[in-house]
Amino acid sequence: MARTGRRPGISDTRARIAAAARAIFAERGIEGASIRAIGRAAGVDPALVHHQFGSKEALFLQVMDLPVDLAGGVGTLLAGGEEGIGERLATFVLAAWDRPEVRPIMLGVIRSAVTDPQAAALLRELVIARALRPLAAGLGRPDAELRAVLAGSQMVGLLMARFVVGIEPLASLDRDTLASAVGPTLQRYLTEDLAGVRARGG
Amino acid sequence: MARTGRRPGISDTRARIAAAARAIFAERGIEGASIRAIGRAAGVDPALVHHQFGSKEALFLQVMDLPVDLAGGVGTLLAGGEEGIGERLATFVLAAWDRPEVRPIMLGVIRSAVTDPQAAALLRELVIARALRPLAAGLGRPDAELRAVLAGSQMVGLLMARFVVGIEPLASLDRDTLASAVGPTLQRYLTEDLAGVRARGG
Q1: Inter-axis angle of helices A144-159 and A85-97, to 10 degrees?
Q2: Which of B88, B123, B165, B178 to mutate to test the interface with A (most CBs of A within 10 A)?
Q3: Residues 44-83 of B with CB under 8 A from A
Q4: What are the backbone dihedrals phi and psi of residue A166, each rounded to the nearest 5 degrees, phi first?
Q5: Mean pLDDT across chain A, nearest whole number?
């Protein structure tokens, strides 16, 4: 057989593995996906998947970074200033979930997280460690960690109600209306005095 | 064999079925439980379970009513007046989850709800239809349904973070501190102007 075009290199293989991984994570969730199945779908040896990306969880985090630039999103939100950052955060997250390459993967993460500790650790990593903690820390208030988790609890509950369980009227509310309804909650968790946290200190 | 004591009546059988159902729902979740297994555990014919309680979901709702009196809780919260009702609601829910006969069952409901539409309907029934909607309606603001779902999204997200995924520092925060941190969120959803909802109207 004549070889047409250039020989596939490392970056083609990585891209093919990443595409296969996104499809399989979306279809089966973290728990149901396997390095073996991803290798098979990408047409490569599973050992190569492991060699290039590490564990299944590490692979997940790396392919997830492609569709959503969390660090960039945090930077953009902080650059917009503190005023209204809660509503802009809600809009950013809801818009990301409206993207067809993001929603099925994140649905898989949330579904897996309630039963699988490794998927729960991934959800924590994506929502808290990479997004809300740096956001809260960038705003410079004390108790950034608790603020991040409180904001995360509202966002995850909202995403469950809207996309996982689909509870009306929230599920079909337009994005901007929903963002302005929950924005002040996120704003308060991230930037305002939290009575309970003060009470804990004294 | 001599029969000792009185003959078991309908109410003994119901109580035995209810106890078996609570144990099995707690252990396996809604999805994993079956009328057959509950009948076997209670020592009765599954047909009798069905005859006395109806479907698996109807059985679940009936046995759930035993540990948490939702209608009574809503009445007590409303009787306490509008001021601080968000924080009292958070305290009520967190206290219910600290009861050993409630938490495993509700963990099962939340775990099942993310993958099983029937369990999702149960979660909606318990959180929205029986608790938050009557609470919001009792407070007399427009958009009671949306207010209930927004408050529910915060409560379910909080319960997931605290009890299902166990994210620190939220997971081990004392109940009163946590209730005062999220109380104003629930207060706003239930009683205050929601900018987004106003915008939708005009």
Answers
A1: 40
A2: B165
A3: none
A4: 70, 60
A5: 86
Confidence band for B196, pLDDT divided at 50, 70 and 90: low
Rounded to an integer, what distance in angstroms lies between the CA atom of residue A101 and that of residue A67? 7
Closest CB to B157: pick one of A120, A156, A199: A156
What rounded mean pLDDT belongs to chain B?
A: 86
Highest-confidence segment of A29-33, A57-61, A107-111, B20-24 = B20-24
Q: Cα angle at B4 between B1 and B10, to 5 degrees?
A: 110
Contacts of B124 in chain A (CB under 8 A): 165, 167
| Residue A76 Cα distances to A21, A83, A85, A147, B179, angstroms | 28, 13, 10, 19, 32
- Best mutation site among A31, A111, A124, A167 for testing chain B: the one with the most B CBs within 10 Å? A167
Q: What is the pTM of this model?
A: 0.78
Q: Which residue has the tokens 């409180």?
A: A150
Q: Which has more pLDDT, A86 or A128?
A: A86
For chain A, the maximum distance between any two Cα atoms, rounded to a whole number of angstroms, is 78
CB neighbours of B173 closer than 8 A, spacing ≥ 6? A146, A196, A200, B162, B181
Interface touch B161/A168, C-beta < 8 Å:
no
Contacts of B115 in chain A (CB under 8 A): 111
Q: What pLDDT score does B99 carry?
A: 86
Mutate one of A149, A159, A191 to test the B interface: name it (highest B CB count within 10 A).
A149
Window from A28-42, A65-79, A82-96, B36-50 with minimum mean pLDDT: A65-79
Report pLDDT for A67: 57
A58/chain B closest Cα distance in angstroms: 19
